Amino acid sequence: MKTGLVLEGGALRGLFTAGVMDVLMEAGVQFDGVVGVSAGACFGCNYKSNQPGRVLRYNLRYAHDPRYCSLWSLLTTGGIFGARFAYYRLPRELDVFDTAAFDRSPMQFHLVCTDVDTGEAVYRSFDHFTEDIYDWILASSSMPIVSRVVNINGQRLLDGGIADSIPLHYFQQQGFERNIVVLTQPANYQKQPLSHLRFIRRLLRPYPVLVEAWERRHLMYNAELQYIAEQAAAGNTLIICPKQTLPIGHISHSRSRMRATYLLGREAATALLPQIQAFIKST
After folding, report:
1. How far apart are CA 252 and CA 257, in angstroms?
2. 179-189: pLDDT as tens digits
3. What pLDDT sits at residue 197?
4. Buried/exposed 208-232: b ≥16 CB within 10 Å, e otherwise
5. Which member of 85, 140, 237, 240 has the greatest number of CB atoms within 10 A?
């Protein structure tokens, strides 16, 4: 019976997820696979490469670097997170992603993108490192309006959270029968309908199907929350989430908020660690 780790996105709310992951890595908790969406993919790849501390470290280091995340980056590169800097130079040169460790690990790594022409989820898996993993992580993490569409082999992609925000069902279909799901919103959260629709439709006029998918996202997301709760009640899913709304938004340059969010993730995982270890062992 295969075990999986399912990581939703949320941009810098994903630092909560990073705190959870670091506790689990430090405790030696092993999964057969991890699937991440958006920040869940960008940060979750570090589980397979076994690099605890890396996510917090580079976010703190580059919190005020305009090449990493800034209005200047949005105006000059088309993305609020500078793609060339954040998704290529950083992992290759500045805070190196351990590709050798990624290769050695038997864990599977999956991520989710959204096809802007169909509005459907696109899934990609990596058993071993290949250079195009950076392209796919960029695509999964590219939020609409503040990011450019990413073209991979003729397929136009953006943030996976639009089509499949919490891909537990997908992972179950891949044979991962017992899963830990890390959410970045509290347990009572319900996503509301999209606001500023007229503005969004105008900006994304070339992608009408994407806009339709984005307008339906709250229905998809809340249905996924219901499904996760049902799977948890059935005993094959364990949920880790913050007790209350996190002290950080999608974008932040505050190092204190980053640390606080990360520590909340560590606290949540530490409190549940005996339960997590028993859950994994029972497989």
Report:
1. 8
2. 999 999 999 99
3. 86
4. eebbebbeebeebbeebbeebeebe
5. 140
Cα distances (angstroms) measured from residue 66 to each of 73, 74, 94, 149, 200: 6, 10, 15, 21, 25
Q: Is pLDDT above 80 for 14?
A: yes
Write out the two tokens for 2: 């295969």
Percent of the chain with pLDDT over 90: 98
Tokens 């810098």 sit at which residue?
12
User: Identity (one letter) of the amino acid at 13?
Assistant: R
Reported as a single tens digit per residue, the pLDDT across 40-63 is 999 999 999 999 999 999 999 999
Q: Strand pairing partners for 108? A: 33
Cβ neighbours around 88 below 10 Å, total: 15
Q: Give the three-class secondary structure for 139.
A: helix
Q: Is the dihedral of CA 136, 142, 144, 146 positive or negative?
A: negative
CA distance 82 to 59: 13
* Residue 283, pLDDT above cutoff 80: no
Report the candidate in 180, 151, 186 with the shortest Cα–Cα distance to residue 238: 180
